[in-house]
């Protein structure tokens, strides 16, 4: 018997475990794989992929693509191993926390059976937190089980670097890997079933993104549905219907990046009375309670957006419920920024122009190509002048409704916009703020003047 059982070692779960233990609660943390201590982010997600992105961006022209990629993978592996060990030690050294390696299965509302290497271990708890994350969605296209078909995890160790990589999917994961491998020197073909990439973004942003990827060497083919994969023993032939015409591409590897799904299969959630939606995501309320009030779900496993930093905020909500005054809510979140790590990165917060107009807002819109922003020399200094900066402002209140930054440092600068939105800083105030020079943030002095 323990006070709290946490199933899964993601960002939110590990942080919650430590906080609860320091507060005097007994905690059991279960993790299925020793290679996933610390969760998806540090092992197969944010950290290792961005390390590869960085090494691709900074690759020396004198390095052969294969050697550069191999070295980058080795650095990636060393980095994740060090972070994994630190995460394990952080919890293992904490009094009050018991760590179990094994697969957890619910056997009742408060009971879980953990299949460890030494045999099953039965754990019961007053409070249970499910933090099992998500996994890549599997393709149902014939031939998708072939040896050269990869998901976002296995592609990180593809060997050797593919001369030609086909990427199926134009979501953030597909875009990031397409850009990453192009910078390492692969020929990359990106297949999208949409009529244009970035279909939810404004047309000018989508056009700028297309330009960035094309210059990097990514061939983008839209309105395409892949119908089969055929492996000839050395390469894979991708067959697709593209704008009504059958086309084929012969590649060394294929990345299927068509989304991620919650990792709930095999948990026997019905035994605990935990409801899921049709896609397998756990249904939660505004405090992340499931349909079983003593069971919470945090991170990618529940309904809603799936980001590491939201998993961390999930921890804050559950910790406030269990240890605090219980006032924090998911609905408290406003102006949550996102970044897609193409080169340069694409960062966004709030409403697009189209979404704002569809919502009936009267707006003022300003947009400028990065190369044309005279007050922002940093992109010229670092040799990255691609991209666009766009802001949407309420015409009546001067409130910032949203912004899109496709530029150097956007993953940092977007946080300034998000903070301004949360604290009701007007577009005029942001425009007239004093920023350091040369920096990317000072673009607002000029862009918002438009």
What's this entry about, in short?
With 450 residues, the protein is an alpha/beta fold. 30% of the residues lie in helices and 26% in strands. It folds into 3 domains: 2-136 and 260-332, 3-Layer(bba) Sandwich (FAD/NAD(P)-binding domain); 149-256, FAD/NAD(P)-binding domain; 338-447, 2-Layer Sandwich (Enolase-like, domain 1), CATH 3.30.390.
Look at the structure and give the mean pLDDT. Answer: 97
* CATH homology group of the largest domain: FAD/NAD(P)-binding domain
How large is the share of residues in beta strands? 25-35%
Can you give the helix content as a percent range? 25-40%
CATH class bucket of the largest domain: Alpha Beta
Count structural domains: 3
- Main sheet record: 7 strands, mixed
Report the CATH architecture of the largest domain: 3-Layer(bba) Sandwich
Number of helices: 12
Please, could you describe this protein's structure?
The structure is a single chain. The protein is of the alpha/beta class. The chain folds into 3 domains: 2-136 and 260-332, FAD/NAD(P)-binding domain, CATH 3.50.50.60; 149-256, FAD/NAD(P)-binding domain, CATH 3.50.50.60; 338-447, 2-Layer Sandwich (Enolase-like, domain 1). Helices cover 30% and strands 26% of the residues. It is built from 12 helices and 22 strands. The chain has helices spanning 11-22, 40-43, 46-57, 65-92, 172-184, 203-216, 308-323, 353-358, 378-382, 410-422, 427-431, 443-447; strands at 2-7, 27-31, 97-101, 103-106, 111-116, 119-130, 134-136, 149-150, 164-168, 187-191, 218-221, 224-231, 236-242, 245-251, 253-256, 260-262, 295-297, 338-340, 346-350, 363-369, 388-394, 400-406. The strands form 5 sheets. Strands 1, 2, 3, 4, 5, 6 and 17 form a 7-stranded mixed sheet that branches.
């Amino acid at each position: 018997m323990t006070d709290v059982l946490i199933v899964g070692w993601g960002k939110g779960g590990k942080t919650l475990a430590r906080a609860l233990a320091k507060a005097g609660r007994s905690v059991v943390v279960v993790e299925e794989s020793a290679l996933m201590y610390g969760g998806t982010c540090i092992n197969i997600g944010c950290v290792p992929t961005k390390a590869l992105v960085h090494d691709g961006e900074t690759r020396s022209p004198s390095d052969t693509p294969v050697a550069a990629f191999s070295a980058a993978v080795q650095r990636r592996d060393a980095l994740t191993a060090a972070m994994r060990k630190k995460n394990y030690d952080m919890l293992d050294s904490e009094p009050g926390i018991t760590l179990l390696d094994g697969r957890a299965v619910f056997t009742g509302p408060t009971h879980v059976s953990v299949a460890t290497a030494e045999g099953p271990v039965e754990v019961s708890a007053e409070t249970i937190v499910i933090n099992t994350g998500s996994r890549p969605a599997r393709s149902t296209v014939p031939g998708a089980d072939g040896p050269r078909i990869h998901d976002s995890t296995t592609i990180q160790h593809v060997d050797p670097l593919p001369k030609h990589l086909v990427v199926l999917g134009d979501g953030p994961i597909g875009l990031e890997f397409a850009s990453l491998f192009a910078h390492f020197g692969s020929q990359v073909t990106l297949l999208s079933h949409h009529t244009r990439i970035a279909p939810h973004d404004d047309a000018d942003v989508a056009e700028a993104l297309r330009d960035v990827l094309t210059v990097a060497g990514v061939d983008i083919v839209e309105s395409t549905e892949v119908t089969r994969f055929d492996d000839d023993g050395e390469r894979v032939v991708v067959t697709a219907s593209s704008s009504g015409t059958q086309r084929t591409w012969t590649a060394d590897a294929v990345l299927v990046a068509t989304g991620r799904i919650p990792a709930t299969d095999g948990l026997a959630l019905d035994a605990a009375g935990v409801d899921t939606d049709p896609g397998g995501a756990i249904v939660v309320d505004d405090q992340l309670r499931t349909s079983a009030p003593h069971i919470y779900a945090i991170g990618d496993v529940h309904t809603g957006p799936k980001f590491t930093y939201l998993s961390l905020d999930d921890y804050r909500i559950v910790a406030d419920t269990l240890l605090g005054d219980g006032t924090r809510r998911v609905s408290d979140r406003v102006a949550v920024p996102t970044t897609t790590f193409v080169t340069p990165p694409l960062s966004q917060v709030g409403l697009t122009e189209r979404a704002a107009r569809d919502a009936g807002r009267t707006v003022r819109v300003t947009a400028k190509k990065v190369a044309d922003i005279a007050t922002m020399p940093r992109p010229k200094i670092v040799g990255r002048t691609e991209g666009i900066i766009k802001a949407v402002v309420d015409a009546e209140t001067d409130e910032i409704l949203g912004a899109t930054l496709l530029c150097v440092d956007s993953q940092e600068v977007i946080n300034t916009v998000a903070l301004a939105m949360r604290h009701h800083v007007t577009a005029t105030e942001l425009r007239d703020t004093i920023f350091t020079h040369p920096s990317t943030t000072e673009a607002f002095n000029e862009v918002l003047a438009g």
